[in-house]
Amino acid sequence: MIKVTEKDIGRKVIYSEGNYKEYGVITSFNEIVVFVRYGTNQTSQSTRREDLQYDMNEEFYEKQIKGLILIMKQREGMVARDYVTEKLNMILNGGIGFHPSIQDQL
């Protein structure tokens, strides 16, 4: 169970029920439920607080995003842009690992 404040809007969470897990982002909340956008959905789903936990890999995601910004600054062209866009989408939808040559830059 999580306790949500205004600061938590935009924070990554994990929904779990039994062995099933799904990653999402808090978009809003009220006194009863938390609204979470899961995966590539464009709308948020109401979710019980007791079914959520904060994604503790936030520091890892921040590091990945900083690395992607570095790539965009250092390289030009569609290949770099497409790579960064793809990886950002993957980060937003549950986390990724970098190609080893990029991991070394982080």
Structural notes for this entry:
The protein is of the alpha+beta class and 106 residues long. It has 2 domains: 6-54, SH3 type barrels (Roll); 58-103, no CATH class. It is built from 3 helices and 5 strands. The protein has helices at residues 58-74, 78-92, 100-103; strands spanning 12-17, 20-29, 34-38, 45-47, 52-54. It has a 5-stranded antiparallel β-sheet, with no helix packed on it. Strand 2 and strand 3 form a beta hairpin. Helix 1 runs antiparallel to helix 2. The protein is elongated, with a radius of gyration of 16 Å.
Chain-wise SSE layout:
Blueprint: E1 12-17, E2 20-29, E3 34-38, E4 45-47, E5 52-54, H1 58-74, H2 78-92, H3 100-103
Helix pairs in contact: 1-2
Name a few traits of the molecule.
SH3 type barrels, 3 helices, 106 residues, alpha+beta, 5-stranded antiparallel sheet, 5 strands, 34% helix
The number of strands is: 5
Would you give the CATH topology of the largest domain? SH3 type barrels
Q: Which structural class do the helices and strands define?
A: alpha+beta
User: Overall mean pLDDT score?
Assistant: 79
CATH class of the largest domain equals Mainly Beta
Strand order, biggest sheet?
A: 4-3-2-1-5
In CATH, the architecture of the largest domain is Roll
Helix content range of the residues, please? 25-40%
Morphology call: elongated
Distance between the termini: 33 Å
Main β-sheet description: 5 strands, antiparallel
Q: Uncertain segments of ≥5 residues (pLDDT<50)?
A: 98-103
Give me the strand/helix succession: EEEEEHHH
- Strand percentage lies at 25-35%
Rg calc: 16 Å
Q: How large is the count of helical segments?
A: 3
Tally the structural domains: 2
